[in-house]
């Protein structure tokens, strides 16, 4: 075993689940001193990472109120995905990992959403411990900020668009929430497989970035009279698709836009249920589960247009069928290594400003990724 003597650090602790993420952030989240992990308590396949950047994801927010499928047990440290520098390596880790390596950590195998004993080590902290198999060299010269925005976002986009959506070259996909972390990853992957992208969103400035990142067309969804809800999109989409409608819808937003999307689809199209950023209150807060405010889709439109509605839960599907992951991961790492995917990160904060980071994400100010830098 090897590594330097490590100084004390800091970590974010969620002491109790909130009714919703804003309550958890304001009342139950704090920055606390963190003793450096003691190598004498670690295993021979363990690695200590000095965290340089941790993604502040939508799922990180939902977990603070127990409104995500995977329920954390407070007190816990958020930060599903992080990247940093290796500062200690267990004796049985082999040659693949060395002190000083710049690495990202696989959120399936370590961190608060993982299933085993590494749940305790979230990325909103100076240090984290992960098993050797979760630690990967950062591909393609990505920065720490980009690296911690790679796997979860692009694996979600891949699972939804490719595995479930069977998106093919020459098809047109409409991507809602395209300025989001998974949404922008979906724009990138759709372009890599040769599809045409119509991206939607509420803010012109964020849509301009989405266009720069590769979307062929962007559509604002706000109503012209300023009222809440979503404007009619059908005529614009029909005009962009020769009257036909889109082949695939990637819906990470939910609520009003879902029903409007069905009117924009061709007969026999595929509607991908990815998430519901617009309606995070579908399930009860404080981890009480249930879905008192479920989203609904109009069955008449689904029936008359012969649509396939496909639920796309990446993690749950992968736990059910682990064979889904190796080809997905290999393709994403190949693209990253070749410089064909570069996560866009619009917001970065010091760890001490983690509340501001979480608020910015919650308020929808971010385009692509948001990070805290311990
Ligand atoms: N299926 C899966 O496996 C999977 C995996 C990860 C995440 N998800 C889910 O997918 C959804 C998107 O995730 P993400 O990480 O891309 O989230 P994100 O980064 O927060 O992006 C969501 C986007 O949705 C748009 N949006 C529209 N109405 C909104 C509202 N009322 N509040 C907030 N955003 C709104 C925003 O774009 P504009 O401001 O441009 O409108 C925002 O950029 C979430 O529901 C998440 O839980 C699903």
Question: Can you characterise this structure?
Answer:
- With 374 residues, the chain is an alpha/beta fold.
- The chain folds into 2 domains: 2-150 and 343-373, Alpha-Beta Complex (Quinone Oxidoreductase, Chain A, domain 1), CATH 3.90.180; 155-317, Medium-chain alcohol dehydrogenases, catalytic domain (Quinone Oxidoreductase, Chain A, domain 1).
- It is 27% helix and 24% strand.
- The chain has 12 helices and 16 strands.
- The protein has helices at residues 21-28, 58-63, 144-147, 151-164, 181-192, 204-212, 234-240, 256-262, 299-304, 314-320, 325-337, 354-362; strands spanning 2-3, 9-14, 29-34, 46-55, 82-89, 102-105, 127-131, 135-137, 172-176, 196-201, 217-220, 246-251, 265-273, 308-311, 345-350, 369-373.
- The strands form 3 sheets. Strands 1, 4, 5, 6, 7, 8, 15 and 16 form an 8-stranded mixed β-sheet that branches. Strands 11-10-9-12-13-14 form a 6-stranded parallel β-sheet, sandwiched between helices.
- Helix 1 (21-28) runs antiparallel to helix 12 (354-362) and helix 4 (151-164) crosses helix 5 (181-192).
- The mean pLDDT is 97.
- It binds NADP nicotinamide-adenine-dinucleotide phosphate.
- Residues 57-59, 156, 160, 177, 179-183, 201-203, 206, 252-253, 274-278, 312-314, 364 line the site of NADP nicotinamide-adenine-dinucleotide phosphate.
């Amino acid at each position: 075993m090897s590594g330097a003597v490590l100084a004390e650090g800091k970590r974010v602790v969620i002491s109790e689940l909130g009714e919703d993420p804003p309550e958890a952030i304001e009342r139950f989240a704090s920055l606390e001193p963190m003793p450096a992990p003691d190598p004498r308590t670690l295993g021979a396949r363990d690695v200590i990472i000095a965290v340089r950047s941790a993604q502040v994801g939508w799922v990180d927010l939902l977990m603070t109120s127990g409104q995500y499928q995977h329920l954390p047990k407070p007190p816990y440290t958020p930060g599903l995905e992080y990247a940093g520098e290796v500062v200690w390596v267990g004796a049985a880790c082999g040659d693949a990992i060395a002190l000083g390596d710049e690495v990202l950590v696989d959120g399936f195998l370590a961190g608060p959403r993982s299933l085993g004993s590494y749940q305790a080590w979230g990325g909103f902290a100076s240090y984290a411990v992960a098993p050797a198999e979760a630690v990967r060299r950062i591909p393609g010269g990505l920065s720490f900020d980009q690296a911690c925005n790679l796997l979860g976002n692009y694996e979600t986009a891949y699972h939804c668009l490719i595995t479930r959506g069977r998106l093919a070259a020459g098809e047109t996909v409409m991507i809602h929430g395209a300025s989001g972390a998974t949404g922008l990853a979906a724009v990138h992957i759709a372009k890599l497989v040769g599809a045409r992208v119509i991206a939607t969103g509420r803010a012109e400035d964020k849509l301009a970035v989405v266009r720069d990142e590769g979307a062929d067309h962007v559509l604002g969804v706000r109503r012209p009279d300023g009222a809440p809800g979503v404007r009619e999109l059908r005529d614009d989409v029909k005009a962009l698709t020769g009257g036909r409608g889109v082949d695939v819808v990637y819906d990470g937003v939910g609520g009003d836009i879902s029903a409007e999307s069905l009117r924009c689809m061709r007969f026999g199209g595929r509607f991908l249920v990815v998430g519901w950023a617009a309606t995070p209150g579908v399930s009860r807060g404080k981890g009480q589960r249930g879905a008192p405010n479920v989203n609904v889709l109009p069955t008449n439109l689904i029936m008359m247009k012969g649509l396939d509605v496909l639920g796309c839960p990446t993690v749950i599907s992968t736990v059910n069928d682990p064979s889904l992951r190796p080809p997905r991961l290999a393709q994403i790492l190949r693209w990253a290594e070749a410089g064909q995917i570069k996560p866009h990160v619009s917001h970065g904060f010091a760890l001490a400003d983690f509340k501001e980071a979480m608020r910015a994400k919650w308020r929808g100010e971010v385009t692509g990724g948001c990070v805290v830098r311990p």
